[in-house]
Amino acid sequence: EVFAYDRRHFGLPRFDFAVVAETPGILRTDTGLGVLVEHGLDRLERSDIDRVVDLQMARLAQRLGEQDIRLTLSPEARERLADEGYDPAYGARPLKRVIQKRVQDPLALELLTGAITPGDDVVVVVESDALVMRPRAGAA
Fold this sequence. Notes:
By secondary structure, the chain is an alpha+beta fold. It has helices spanning 17-22, 46-65, 75-85, 95-113; strands spanning 70-73, 121-127, 130-136. It has four helices and three strands. The longest helix is centred in the middle third of the chain and has 20 residues, at 46-65. 24% of the residues are buried.
């Protein structure tokens, strides 16, 4: 299965869906966003990655919202994730792993220890050159 989307939805250059239809099974992505960066298609630039960070974080925030937990990313944290998750050769492909390692895994630990509970607002900030979760209890 090949996932594709029309990148103009995110203010990015458009690619031709015919290329996707003619190459099933070749063009794939592990970001879950359907960002296809292959021969003949526009490569993602570093400036595009902020939008991809927003999409990935929106998905995470939606899942957390099901547990009544609100997630906010500071501009500095967003920039850090974009910088760490971008590779000129691979575009946004490393981003999913960076978000898992820097945000999802620490959040899971905080949930398991009870430091973050339903009803909390969680702000991801940069402190001492690291991403840190700052829960604010019942800040609805």
